[in-house]
Design goal:
Blueprint (H helix, E strand, L loop, with lengths): L2 H36 L6 E4 L4 E8 L4 E6 L2 E6 L3 E6 L7
Antiparallel strand pairs: 1-2, 1-5, 2-3, 3-4
Organism: Aneurinibacillus thermoaerophilus
Keywords: Cell membrane, Membrane, Protein transport, Translocation, Transmembrane, Transmembrane helix, Transport
GO cellular component, one term: plasma membrane
């Protein structure tokens, strides 16, 4: 086997290891996050990237913003600022 062929095989093996250890898991996490953001609905209890806990009051799909009621204050965030959903829809009695 020539030295050039060994180098090609080495690069292919390194790329395969890189793909299965880094790229593929990251794509899977990104797909899960996008599904979570797409499933957001009014009343969901969420935590933002900054650590703010609140309940979604309004979702505006035109510019991807949400309004969160946190301790009586309404704050507007980008959808991408939501880190996780900590509870399903909370029904408010009106």
């Amino acid at each position: 086997m020539s030295a050039g062929m060994q180098q090609v095989i080495l690069w292919v093996v390194l790329f395969a290891i890189f793909y299965f250890l880094l790229i593929r898991p990251n794509q899977k996490r990104q797909k899960q996050r996008n599904a979570m953001l797409a499933a957001l609905k009014k009343g969901d209890r969420v935590v933002t990237i900054g650590g703010l806990h609140g309940t979604i009051d309004l979702i505006n799909d035109e510019n991807n913003t949400i309004v969160i009621n946190a301790g009586g204050h309404k704050l507007t965030f980008e959808k991408m600022a939501v880190q996780s959903v900590i509870g399903e829809s909370v029904q408010k009695s009106q």
